[in-house]
Amino acid sequence: MAVQALCQQFSVQKASDNEQIQCLSQQLSQQKAASENRIKHLFEQLSLQKAADKEQIERLSQQLSQQKAASENRIKHLFEQLSLQRVSDREQIEHLSQQLSQQMAANENQSKRHQEQITYLWQQIGELQQDHHAAQEVSKALLLSRLPEFVTAVSRSSPTVRRVVLPLHNFLSVLFLESMASHRQHLHSGRFCDPPKVEITRICESINPNIQEQYLHARKLLVQRRPDGCTPLRGITAFKCAVECGHVNLNEYLLFHGCPMGAVQSILENGLDPQRGGEAAGSMFGKGAYFAETASKSDLYTTCSECRSYRECKHPRAERCILVVRVLLGKTKIVTTEDCTSLNRAPEGYDTVTAQKTSNGGRLDHTEFVVYKEQMTLAQILGAWASSVLRVQEPPEHSALNAEGRVIAGMSAACGLMEVLFAFFICQLAAVEAYLIFTVWSLCEDMKVSMKGQLPQLLVHKQSREPVGDPASALFGGQNRGLGYGAF
């Protein structure tokens, strides 16, 4: 029974399960049909979307093609414009390059013309400077070479001294300055000092008609002995007096002579006495009047007004005097190392002796000249100066010595003017070339006219002939103290 009951329950359960299965199967079929319908609907929607996308893609593709074609056309148009612009730019560049080349050529030509003008102006300036220097040299030669003139009986009767004025004062100052040389510290020293330093206090001209007439007579006699003139000396730095037209060369020089202050008045009155040569400084070349081409050499043998010997002078800063002497060297004997201490007149066939310096094979540091006849010398200039540094008080005999550098006051006013004009020209050149050319040309023309007008006056310049008293008062001022010892 139980089995039968179970079978019935199983059958009922089976029928229920079959019904449930059928119900589920129907639901599944319905669900499947609904899914298929949904899938079909989605597929249809997808197909429609695909068709729409395809249409959109085709439309976008067409737009892209059109845009690409437009871009290509635009690029082609831009390229054509760029090519045209490039051609235009190239033509413009070539045109500008031609203009630049022409402008550069024009500028180069203009610069070349300006440079030629500047070169010409500098040549003009150089020529003017040379002309000015030549005029100065001519004026210097005439003024230094001339001899005083005597216009009154009084002026011919006694020696007088007068102040030297411009431009002769400047020429003499430069003559002193250029003749300052370096000297040994002492006799056997191998060391040389700087050139001496002095301050010129005044320069005067001595006029002694009697001595001058004796000098002129001696010059005439020398011309008679040397009708063809004398061989010019070489290596002499002293000023050589100009040879007058129609005359022969007699080797006439302006040389320096140093002596104690107390001997100056005797020299001015009576001239140099060669027979007393060597009394104070020795006679290496015999008894004669000794001269030097360097003022500093002669200055070694000067003294102040209070001392008699240069070896014992105790006032190194005191004022002292040096003589500029016109000397007829004539035919001079060149001496190097030979012994000449016994000479009391010029060697046979000669008029004077020239002792060479060591650089020319001689024994001296500075060239010396010895004259044995008093008529062949004429003291013309007295230069007074004061040392700005201490002097060495024991100069060696016939050798150079320390006289520590000295400065000579005064320079040529004309030279200073040319230096100012030269600096002015340089400033103008650095500023504006066109203005410089006009300005410098005008100045050059003005200077030519000015020099043409002034040169004849310079060449015929005459100094005042009025005596100013005795040498002492003229040289140092104050009252007339005569020519006695101590006046200088």
Structure description:
By secondary structure, this protein is an alpha+beta fold. Helix content is 50%, strand content 12%. The protein folds into two domains: 41-107; 144-476, Phosphoenolpyruvate Carboxykinase, domain 3 (Alpha-Beta Complex). It has nine helices and ten strands. Helix 1 (2-145) runs parallel beside helix 8. The longest helix is centred in the first third of the chain and has 144 residues, at 2-145. The protein starts with a helix and ends in a 12-residue tail after the last helix. The model is unreliable at 389-420 and 447-488 (pLDDT under 50).
Return the CATH architecture of the largest domain: Alpha-Beta Complex
Task: Characterize the overall form.
Answer: rod-shaped
Question: CATH topology of the largest domain, which one?
Answer: Phosphoenolpyruvate Carboxykinase, domain 3
**SS summary, helix count:** 9
> What is the percent of helical residues?
40-55%
Low-confidence stretches: 389-420, 447-488
Mean pLDDT: 78
Which band does the percent of strand residues land in?
5-15%
Q: Please count the beta strands (DSSP E, at least 2 residues each).
A: 10
Q: How far apart are the termini?
A: 191 Å
Number of domains: 2
CATH class label of the largest domain: Alpha Beta
Q: Would you summarize the structure shown here?
A:
This protein is α+β, with helices and mostly antiparallel strands and 488 residues long. The protein contains 9 helices and 10 strands.
